[in-house]
Structure formats: structure tokens, C-alpha cells
Amino acid sequence: MKTKTMNHRLILLGVFPILGFALMYLVPMGMTFEYALLDNTINRKWVGVDNLRHVWSNRYFLMGMRNLIILGGGMVLFTLLFALLLSFLLCRHPRIAGKAMAVLVLPLLIPSVAVVSVWRTVFDTVVVRTDGQAITALISLFMWKFSGVAAVILYAGLKSVPQSVLDAAALDGAGEIRTFVRIRLPMSGGNLVMAVVFLLMYMFRIFKESYLLFEDTGTKSVYMVQHYMNRVYLKMDFQYVAAAAVSLIMVALLLYGGTLLMLRYRRTYW
Amino acid sequence: MKKLTAVLLLLILFFFVLPMLILFIAAFYDGDILKTICKGAAPPSIGISQFRSLFGDEDLLWHFGNSARMTALILLAQVPLSIMGGLFLARSRMRGKRLLLLLLLFGLLLPFQSIMMPLFTMFRQTGLYNHQYGIILFYAMSPVGSLIMLIEIKSIPDDHWEAALLDSKSLWSILQVAILPQHLPGIAVLVLLCFAEAWNMVEPPLVLLSDVDLRPASLTLNDIHEVDGGYLYAGAAVYCLPVLIMYAITIRLKKPMGIFLIDNNNDYKI
Questions:
Q1: In principle, which of A1, A134, A154, B147 could form an S-S bond with A87, CB 3.0–4.6 Å?
Q2: Does residue B180 sit at the A interface (CB-CB below 8 Å)?
Q3: How many CB atoms neighbour CB A193 within 10 A?
Q4: pTM of the predicted protein model
């Protein structure tokens, strides 16, 4: 078959999933931006950044945003450090590592609802909730679920460093940790950035676990932006929900952008 | 020193398995064993009567059925669509393809909250609101599947594709002979990941299905906490079983490292 015919067939084939994706994900995204700039869905009067200004002056939204960045950022940091430690250990013991993969990937696949039943009782998240308890429960759940795959991503990159380089380092007298930090990690081909992006992606979805753990009423420290959005959604103030969503998207893009910028300086530092 | 780190690694791996172990052990107790351990309530006895109560709870079984039906339909739609999308992204030559890929990644990275409100409006207007088919369509168009298949197909060099083109007359015959048999492990991974995502759905049904009778068990499982009878953990353990079974099957087909198709030896030129 000619390449050109095949190309046409492939494009025809690709129309279905791509169009469906655009309809279900991209179009609503555009509509969110549209709603954020309008008065409300009935009047449709242009108000520009007024909605954003209103949302950013609401103390609940600010609480949610502050929690997202501080708590979320902290979670990602701790999980990343733990994953780094784990990947270091995996590098040292490749034979255990081969069999460990199966275990590390599992937490991501297990339905949240099932493990949350254990977490709810152990961390007592339903009735009595102090700030420290809530944060511990959420961070431990996040770390358990995602550090495994983050470690696998890191390990895949670390494994690909050629043995000759490692031997040369050993000859020059580099110890295990120094080899890890100075040679393996920088040569891991951007996997560190991949792991960070992966963790960031799930940090924005932490609301799911938070909702399952604490139901609708979290304590102050775990109140997320999405809680605010749900509240306003119930009041039918769609323009504020949209403005909050837009703010969320902006923060997300900032964080991802920052991480990808790290990729540009990869050759030098990471 | 090396032995110490090996022990540490094994300990960490044990902690990854621990929550699931706890869940499965707790499932065999008549009451809430975790509450006993953590708060000193009356100890329940070991038994299987809670399983009898579990399978007698028609409400819960109905929700399990909802989960099963929605997940089956989602898989039926998502797997072919993903293969089509992956094939298109990997093998076709089109001018805007890189931009499309970027948009797919963009759709993957953002939280559900950014599109939940327009989806709500869209579904209401098209009559899909409060119908399971709306959720099924939404999940079927997820970009994850196409991206997974993209990586999977890209892992086979282009020469195989060119050779298949020369020998075949139609796309369908190429699919049958060259693509599907070769990529079977990758397709198994696709099925596993799509299954895990659908089995674990929380936010879309929360927003888009107002009728509790339509909701899947991944939302309503924790409601049986209020019911006395202590089969919460049994229910959660049973809910985990399908994922575990599929995982066990997939591991036999493809090594665990391949689960996330992370292979640093390939240079992905798109």
C-alpha cells in the first residue's frame, strides 16, 4: 500500500479519538475560560477580570489556594525525596529491584475507596479532626500511593547510566552517595523532571482522596480550592466556579512551566 | 553496609504492601478490628459471616453492578479508540500533529475541576446528565489511552511498519497480522490502566450523576460504614479483587517495569 493512502487512512482513524477528546476535554476548557470572563450564564455580560478579583478576595478561596500550594507542595517535596531515597536503594540492589517493581506500582492501581476505609479508621479522620491528624493522614496517603511509581520513573533513568562511567567514578574514588548525586542523577535523562511532573499532576487531583477521607467537611488545613468550588457551585454562582478553575489552571501552568524550565538547565545541573 | 541498605529496602517495600495486607486481614473479622486496635473497642471474632452479610446487602451489590457495567462499557469504547489514536499519533504524518500531541498532554495534566462545570452544563443540554452513558463517554475519550499506545507503538522501529506496508493491502490486515500480535502485552497494559482508572472513578460521577442509584461502588463503598455489621473491609477487599486479578494477569504478559512503558533506550521522535 502506498504511504500516502495509509497516511490518509490513519488520519481518518485518528479523527475519532482526537475529536472525542476535543469535545470532552478541550471544549469544556474553553468554556471555563469563557464563563470566567462573563457576568453569569444568563446575562452573558462581559466583566473581564472582575470575577477573578472577587474570587481572589474571598478568604475561603485564599485558604484553599494557600493549602494547595503549601500542603500540596510539601507533599510533592516529601514524596520526591522519599522516591529519590527509594531509587537510590533500588540502584544498589538491582536483583531486589527487579521484583520490587510489581509492589511499587500496585498502590496506584488499588481503588482509593478501598484503602481509604483503612486510613479512615487508623487516622480517625471521620469524627475527631485536628489539623495535625488531617495533614498526617493526607500526606501519608499521598506518599503511599505515588512514591512507588515516582521511584520507578527515577530508577528507569538511573539504570540507563552506562557502567563505564560508573566504573570510572569508582576508580576516581567516588563513594556510593557521591556517585548517585553527581553522576547518576544528572545523567538520568530528564527522568527527575518526569517524576516531578507526574507528582504535580496527582497533587492537583488530591481532592479526590481528600473528599473520600474527610467527606465534605475538612478541617482548615486541608480545605482545598476544590472545596471552595463545590460550595460556590452549590450556590449556582457559576462564574466564580469558573474563575476559581481558571486560577487553578494558571497555578498549574506556572508549576509545570517552572518544572519544564528545569529541563532546559538539565545539562548543567540535573 | 550493603546488607543494611538491602534490609532497609525490603522494609520499605513491606510498608508498601502493608495497607493492603491490613485490609485483607481485617476483611476476615466479624466487626471492625481496626477500631479495636486503634481505639480499644470490643474485639470482634474471626469469621466469614460478614461475607454473608456483604452478599446479602442488595444495595451494595447494586452499586458493584454499576461499577462493573460502567467499567466494562468504558473499556469496550476506550481500548479501540486508544489503539486508533495511538496508531494515528505514532505512524501518521500530518502537519499539526505535534500541536495535537501537546493538547493531549495538556488535557492529561489538568484537574477535573477545570472542566466539571461546563461538562455539567453540556450534559444537561444534551440530556446526558444523570445517565451512566455520559460518564462512559467521558472516560472513553480520555487522552491517557492514546498516549500509552503512542509510547507502545513507538517502541517498535519504523522499519517494521514500512515492511508491513509493503506486504499488505489494507489497514485491517496490517492490524491483524503485524500490529495486534506484537503489541499484545502493551494492549494488556492499556486495558489494565484503563480498567484501574474506571474502577476508581470518584469525581465525575459525583458531579454528573445526581441519582445515587446510578453511582458506582467507588463512591458509595464508604457509606456502609454507618451500617452495623462490620463488612466494610470485606466489601473493600472484594472491590480490590478485580484490579488485583487483572494486575496478576498483566504481569505475566509483560514485566512490571514495562507497566509504565518507561524505557530509556528509545529516543522518541514524534
A1: A154
A2: no
A3: 20
A4: 0.88
